[in-house]
Amino acid sequence: MTAARKWTAQDVPDQTGRTAVVTGATSGIGFATAKELARHGAHVVLAVRDTGKAAVAAARIRAAVPRAELTVQRLDLADLGSVREAAKELADRCERIDVLLNNAGVMWTPEARTADGYELQFATNHLGHFALTGLLLDTLRATPGARAVTISSYVHRLARIDFADLNAERRYSRYRAYGQSKLANLMFSLELQRRLAAAGADTVAVAAHPGLAATGLGRDFPAAFHRIGPTLGPLFLQPADRGMLPGLRAATDPGVRGGQFYGPLGLTETRGHPGPVRTGGSARDPRVWRRLWEESERLTGVSYGI
Ligand SMILES: NC(=O)c1ccc[n+]([C@@H]2O[C@H](COP(=O)([O-])OP(=O)(O)OC[C@H]3O[C@@H](n4cnc5c(N)ncnc54)[C@H](OP(=O)(O)O)[C@@H]3O)[C@@H](O)[C@H]2O)c1
Q1: Which of 94, 119, 230, 261 is the least buried, fewest Cβ under 10 Å from its Cβ?
Q2: Residues belonging to the active site
Q3: Which residue puts its alpha carbon closest to atom 25 of ligand 1?
Q4: Does the pLDDT at position 52 exceed 60?
């Protein structure tokens, strides 16, 4: 194993003076990343849909990191009105945003629509983060070397963007909808980087995936998974504080470049130390990135202007 393969949270440079906004910081990967960023001195904004849970999360972080500098921001990614409100409050209250970690997510939810009329997984995982990033772009661009880090998944490799039924109006499969949303996360990051570079911005977009980690993500899994989970889970899942390492590295390692994708380097990218990984074939077509981008601007009403 090379030195590069052994990157750990101890390699995070001092984050004092930097601000990181972490979506979905109440649980799992988001909580573990927020704690680590706070441990290294960042001001961390816990961007969450449930402020009661955020208070518990903040208390847990402070128990581990007594000097943690934390702020709570209400944000429901499944509601574009809430995303707009949150972005405005964040832009008003944060002089700088060095890292926007687009992490929150739901998986395999039963068929549901948001108040805006969008399929829940696509709306929460992709559209909400697309809108949030666009609305915070001026603040990100005003912060030297800022990064937008978006958490995708290894399952993007099995997915495709179904432009004929993006919003699952004809047919809903919870598995396909999740896969599509995670492929969309990755394509969004790649297209954002392409546009930022073309605009000469020094803001970068980076994607990451956690491999397999024991978090709250399985709450909507079918009953059979809950029956076998306690036995098989420990064999396959790494703890959240390992699963968060690719995103943490993407957010903080000075060697990271825009357009990269980080994941765990061991055992078919399910576990291990984080490093750059390859995107699956379905994520490599810039024509699809561009089409998804245009659809996302139309569906969210958020135009990036780049
Ligand atoms: N765990 C894995 O093995 C794995 C693998 C691949 C990719 N991922 C990705 O990793 C990311 C983090 O997931 P996790 O595994 O840490 O799961 P988790 O423990 O369930 O955390 C998900 C977080 O997202 C928040 N969230 C859900 N819907 C939201 C909404 N509408 N608005 C704002 N926040 C919302 C949740 O808030 P509440 O506490 O209020 O529910 C929670 O804080 C996701 O993007 C997921 O797709 C995870």
Answers
A1: 230
A2: 178
A3: 24
A4: yes
| Residue 50 CB less than 6 A away from ligand 1 | yes
Is residue 143 assigned to a domain? yes
Q: What is the mean pLDDT of residues 192-209?
A: 98
- Residue pair 101/19 in contact (Cβ under 8 Å)? The answer is no
For position 231, what pLDDT does the model report?
A: 76
**CATH assignment of the domain containing 81:** 3.40.50.720
Residue 235: band (very low, low, confident or very high) from pLDDT cuts 50, 70, 90: confident
Ligand 1 atom showing the smallest separation from residue 219 Cα: 20
- 124 in any annotated domain: yes
Counted domains in the chain:
1
Closest CA to 124 of 140, 109, 139: 109
- Percent of the chain whose pLDDT exceeds 90: 90
Pocket lining: 115 vs ligand 1, CB cutoff 6 Å:
no
Quickly count helices (H) and strands (E) in the chain.
11, 10
Q: Is residue 211 part of a domain?
A: yes
Cα–Cα distances in Å, from 216 out to 72, 142, 190?
20, 35, 27
Q: Tell me which residue of 102, 72, 64 sits closest to 89, measured CA to CA.
A: 72
pLDDT attached to residue 5 = 53
Range of the domain at 75: 14-300
- Ligand 1: nearest atom to the Cα of 214: 1
Helix (H, G, I), strand (E, B) or coil at 10: helix
| pLDDT attached to residue 223 | 80
* Residue 7 falls inside a structural domain: no
State the distance from the centre of ligand 1 to the C-alpha of 25, rounded, in angstroms. Answer: 8
Q: Which of 22, 23, 26 to mutate to test the pocket of ligand 1 (most atoms within 8 A of CB)?
A: 26
Q: Convert the pLDDT of each residue in 244-278 to its tens digit.
A: 999 999 999 999 999 999 999 998 899 999 999 99
Average pLDDT, the chain: 95
CA dist., res. 107 & res. 125, Å (int): 9
